[in-house]
Amino acid sequence: MISKLPSWIWAGAWALAFVAGMVNVVGLLGFEHQAVTHLTGTTSMLAAAVAELDGASALHLAAVLFSFMAGTVLSGYIIQDSTLQLGRRYGIALLLESFLLCLSVPLLNWGSPSGMYAASCACGLQNAMVSAYSGAAIRTTHLSGMFTDLGIFLGHFLRGLPVDSRRLWLCVLIISGFFCGGIVGALAFRWISYSALLIPGVLTALTAAGYILHQWRTRPAG
Q: Which residues form the signal peptide (predicted)?
């Protein structure tokens, strides 16, 4: 249940949504104009490319999809559980995400689509890492579920039904983080182009360090 989420999860969810917002805006503003934090539009574009027999575009879009899924596979391999609790390997996963985001910068600056694949893999890793806690879905790289939940809550409110206030605030938190990340990402891309991805790369590294420190400080004595 959302009520069982510890306070540090709320801060982490906002930070990771902020990271995803930055990454996606850079992808949309870059030379491929391609979203990299979610796969709905990419899958539709792949279908259109296949229908048009555009082999080059189809291979590129399939590579973006594969890269995102590869990130989710890495997350499952590293963390080995969907239950979020101290002692899991989240620090390692966050450091790997940071590495992939930083790696994408020189690749994109060289005009290589491999940079997009690295960024997509990082987003898949992040999304799988925080995908579920005690049966409550948490997504930080796309907002369809968050806006859907907000609509459901509004419908419940209009019918006079009880609303899960913690879930409501979690939705608002993640949406605001993604939106703020998008603003910062757009401004940073205007100033420093693809080097803007170094910002979320550093943020994920700092988040990893904060998680590892928190784990160390709260571990049982002896």
A: none
Q: What are the boundaries of each domain within the chain?
A: 11-218
Element (H, E) at 206: helix 198-218
DSSP lists the bridge partners of residue 133 as: 136
pTM of the model: 0.88
* Length of the chain (residues): 222
Run of H or E residues at 136: strand 136-137
Instruction: Say whether domain 11-218 belongs to CATH 1.20.1250.
Output: yes
CA gyration radius, the chain: 18
What is the sign of the dihedral through the CA atoms of 75, 78, 79 and 82? positive
CA distance 127 to 129: 5
Tens of pLDDT, residues 149-205: 889 989 998 888 888 888 888 889 999 999 999 999 999 999 999 999 999 999 999
